[in-house]
Specification:
By secondary structure, the chain is an alpha/beta fold. It is built from 8 helices and 7 strands. Helix content is 43%, strand content 16%. Strands 2-1-3-6-7 form a 5-stranded parallel beta sheet, with helices on both faces. The protein has a two-stranded antiparallel ribbon with strand order 4-5. Keywords: DNA-binding, Phosphoprotein, Transcription, Transcription regulation, Two-component regulatory system.
Length: 190
């Protein structure tokens, strides 16, 4: 079932409640792609594009699994994670984010998420994270980001949060403004 401005897609016949999954992401193309991929893998999919839609979907029937984006247009995806945990203790939630950092990963896990993945994550990565046992370690990524890339991503995130204001971004990063301008002028490292 797709919670998307009144559009509904019926669950596939023969899919049990234990294969139900809620996908919450405000990136509609990504949400649609992931939803189709999960349906092809036998899940009964409910999609939501905001915190409000995610909370409504959770209230209508708590799924066995959920994939929730951390930052949504109308709030924080961790609100949905909390609501899911309150409604169903055994729900397995994976949190996705485009801006990974340790503090939010720790918060997500404390709220009940079983894993925390950087976007874009494909359906196989999501399923692996949802299905691994509580004592199993996650596989290391095949192509992890380099330290330079992680630094660049962090700078870009702060720059966007400061409404692309170079002076404010430099102040928040404790960096000289000209140094920041040089970094921003370069292409992203690999």
């Amino acid at each position: 079932m797709l919670v998307d401005e009144g559009v509904s897609i019926a669950a596939r016949p023969g899919v049990s409640d234990e294969r139900s999954i809620l996908l919450v992401d405000d990136d509609r193309p990504f949400l649609t792609r992931l939803g189709r991929a999960m349906e092809q893998r036998g899940f009964s999919v409910t999609m939501a594009a905001s915190v409000a839609e995610g909370l409504a979907a959770a209230a209508n029937g708590t799924p066995a699994y959920a994939v929730v984006d951390m930052r949504l247009g109308d709030g924080n995806g961790l609100e949905v994670v909390q609501a899911l945990q309150k409604a169903r203790e055994d729900v397995r939630v994976v949190v996705l984010t485009g801006y990974g950092n340790i503090a939010t990963a720790v918060t997500a896990v404390k709220l009940g998420a079983v894993d925390y993945l950087a976007k874009p994550a494909d359906a196989d990565e999501v399923i692996a994270a949802l299905m691994h046992g509580p004592d199993a370690k996650a596989e290391p990524p095949e192509n992890p980001m380099s330290a330079d890339r992680v630094r660049w991503e962090h700078i870009q995130r702060v720059y966007e949060l400061c409404d692309r204001n170079v002076s404010e971004t430099a102040r928040r990063l404790s960096m000289h403004r000209r140094t920041l301008q040089r970094i921003l002028a370069k292409r992203a490292p690999r």
